[in-house]
Amino acid sequence: MAPAAMTFASSLSDAQPVPFWLEDPGKPAALPALTGDEKTDLLVVGGGYSGLWTALLAKERDPRRDVVLIEGREVGWAASGRNGGFCAASLTHGLANGLARWPGDMARLEELGARNLDAIEDAVARHGIDCDFERTGEIDVATEPHQLEELREMHEEAGRLGFGGLELMDRDAVRAEVDSPTFLGGLWDRKGVAMLNPARLAWGLKRACLGLGVRIYENTRALDLSPAGAGMAVRTSYGRVYARRVALGTNVFPSLVKRIRPYTVPVYDYALMTEPLSPGQRDAIGWRNRQGLGDSANQFHYFRITADDRILWGGYDAIYPYGGKVTAELDHRPETYLKLAGQFFECFPQLEGLRFTHAWGGAIDTCSRFSAFFGTAHGGKVAYAAGYTGLGVGATRFGADVMLDLLAGERTERTELEMVRKKPLPFPPEPVAWAGIGITKWSLARADARGGRRNLWLRTMDRLGLGFDS
Ligand SMILES: Cc1cc2nc3c(=O)[nH]c(=O)nc-3n(C[C@H](O)[C@H](O)[C@H](O)COP(=O)(O)OP(=O)(O)OC[C@H]3O[C@@H](n4cnc5c(N)ncnc54)[C@H](O)[C@@H]3O)c2cc1C
Question: Where is the FAD dependent oxidoreductase domain (predicted)?
């Protein structure tokens, strides 16, 4: 190992291979599993944000509705408890992606996204959810000259279309906020992103659901789904749930509606957490306004500061396992941790000597258009939402509303959206998916190294509206 790599390795020597957020003394005990049969108006499958918001909003829409939620392991153990905690208003995986796909609906999508984020902030306050919610915004930073031009174009385009609130920053302005010698400029979305503690949001939603009378069973996996009388029956290990309607918030895990499985692939994303910074280390980087940050490369990093002044540093590698497996072994990848540690100290050389306390990964439900898709099955008795592609902390609440609209058979401002009415292109079967994703990843890395220039493969994929991201 080269000396520099050895230094990075030693910064990782005490890092626990567990998500920082889930190692919290405030973690609630798991609720008992379902044993026997249950009958309900609405069964929600999945105890991540998708399922929890669906259960909560269902009760808020109609307090008399009986709601049961089942979770295969523990509430919040998966993506919802191990993400970066960037809670964005965007429903479209960013403005550029939305404008490229749904230009006609974009004004409405932005408005609905802003309302959705406001509603999350309101619910956090109303239900007393202690999740360090801070509406600090996010700065996209340029670390290569061509990215400055991209940020400038995005700023202009957003202004032209009336999507204000973005602030273009030169090198000195960004470095006055957060100091890294690698930053060349930035674009600060002051209102459109909040930072939060992701696991505590999930646990807080669980508590809020229980408070409204939702019955939650943990360690209760849904094994299959079949029609039963006027409703549906869901089989679990020790019992069945008979439900008039079923909402699936199962994210990257194999859907109970088999035909939608090809629409997502798991992409593993990894993150490191540092020890708390000393006051001297804080002074060396600034970061007084506590924004989330992301760099603007195809292979990007996201980073933020926690309530106790640690830095979370994640992203860059996006690992697709052949065959789309979701397994516990893939939650850890020491070679990625080493790479991330090296890149961290390139970004913040002033923090040399800082140590990482936690290192983990998780599967992201990637779809080919980077933003969620929705639909129904079994004659409208079952609804699903999936494919959030790394930007689901905020958007899952919107997806929950869409599922409830669909189950009610209602036409709403949400169900009229093209994004809701139309599905993305599915991924092809293996080995074509593996080969296609491999060429795309190689091309994206090459574009980053070549001033952003996209090769013929990426340009063709762009024209087809197909993409790969984490
Ligand atoms: C490392 C990482 C970083 C991320 N960072 C961000 C970020 O900063 N900002 C952002 O917006 N997004 C981020 N994301 C994405 C975000 O976390 C997800 O989009 C979001 O949590 C999805 O919520 P969910 O409820 O749909 O899925 P999950 O949280 O995965 O929940 C699905 C649940 O369904 C359960 N389940 C599945 N099948 C069954 C079954 N058959 N029976 C019973 N239960 C079942 C699972 O056990 C699981 O608990 C990140 C994701 C990862 C992995």
Answer: 41-403
